[in-house]
Amino acid sequence: MTDPLQILVLYGSVRTERKGIRAARYITRQLSERGHEVTLVDPADLDLPLLDRMYKEYDEGEAPAVLAELAADIQRADAFVMVTGEYNHLPPPALLNTIDYFLESWFWRPSAIVSYSAGRTSGVRAASHLRDLLAEIGTVSLPRALAYGQVGSVFSEDGTPSEEHADRFAKGFARFADELEWYARALRAARAEGLPTG
Fold first, then answer.
1. pTM value?
2. What pLDDT does 19 receive?
3. Nearest by Cα to 180 from 129, 143, 132
4. Domain 6-193, what architecture?
5. Helix (H) or strand (E) holding 38
């Protein structure tokens, strides 16, 4: 890979018995194997309280270190992958809380959605709602998405797909990654020429 991208994979659940982290690990590893610099953002590690003040509302140097570090990661990123489960047809609160700490930080970069569920619906209803949020925060939401049903059985704990699903998942991921890379490089080039004003 001669042109690696900086990609953030944002995962959404902090539940004790969470299974979707398996899909997040799969996506992170697959993107890394394509030569990109990939960071998995796990809200269980961040331990952010419910939003009170956005990052931009802190005075210079006064934001908690975890927010400052995440802000820097977001600013460096060329693209985002949002990995969402489905809680009552919506993305998990921890994912929304993490996103909401920042606003203009997401602008002018593409985002892609990976959804999952314990059952067969694969989280697609949450993905539909997440698209609305991504548009509002200024990130271009890609048309292509990935959706994994029965996530606890189709991936092992480390994110390795079961043998019966491996080839199909690899093909779907390749198309997903090709599209993400194209948008990320196109928008990176456009940002280098300047941003819209007004």
1. 0.95
2. 95
3. 143
4. 3-Layer(aba) Sandwich (3.40)
5. strand 37-41
